[in-house]
Amino acid sequence: MFVATSTSAVFIAAAYLTLLIPETAATAPTIISRAQWGARAPKHQAANLARKPAPYVVLHHSTGNGCVTQAICQLKVREFQNYHMNSKKWSDVGYNFIVGEDGNIYEGRGWGKQGAHSKPFNNKSIGICIIGDYTNRTPNSAAVQAVDSLIAYGVSSGEIKNDYKLLGHRQTWQTNCPGNSLYTMMQSWPHWAAAA
Ligand SMILES: *[C@@H]1O[C@H](CO)[C@@H](O)[C@H](O)[C@H]1NC(C)=O
Ligand SMILES: [Zn+2]
């Protein structure tokens, strides 16, 4: 009797999980770690986000050339980090994540950390930069899918609010970032918000 009950309980639990999993868990995307892309150590540890899960995602472009291979994208990510640390005098690369048209996601400051990418929003947003200049063209589908899977995973793992707002950098600061073409494109994405 005891065995029969626990067996059916296991079946019910398994059936329940089968129903639940596709709803709640986005597959973890592969993220190229700082060690993998050859990051320098930050000058000091980034502060935690003041609001977690983050209520905003802010999208950026980098200007300059895009990249379609991991070797070149990694080189660019290292260049951004050097520029941010040496010229801007920031403690680390400013973005939480960087995405390439190679379809890879590169770890910047990562989840739950305050970046240096969108001044008034740094303490309540995840900042994602797509490598390239999207003034006159949109990023390829590999990059768009990488951003989409990164955000979906952030939501499912409690790093980004379910009802987050997606903003372009130009909505938070006087800038052309993320470029006219990408800004137009992102306005059709599900969580884009006209106003913060
Ligand atoms: C977050 O940053 C804004 C703007 O920089 C600042 O006014 C605010 O006090 C910060 N919030 C917290 C909780 O640190
Ligand atoms: Zn920007």
TrEMBL record:
Keywords for this protein: Disulfide bond, Immunity, Innate immunity, Signal
Single GO molecular function: N-acetylmuramoyl-L-alanine amidase activity
Keyword field contains Manganese: no
Annotated disulfide bonds: C67-C73
Disulfide bond as UniProt keyword: yes
One Pfam family per UniProt: Amidase_2
Signal peptide span: 1-26
GO biological process: innate immune response; peptidoglycan catabolic process
Domain Peptidoglycan recognition protein family per the UniProt entry, residue ranges: 29-173
Residue intervals of the N-acetylmuramoyl-L-alanine amidase domain: 44-179
Similarity field: Belongs to the N-acetylmuramoyl-L-alanine amidase 2 family.
Protein name: Peptidoglycan-recognition protein
Species in which this protein is naturally found: Harpegnathos saltator (Jerdon's jumping ant)
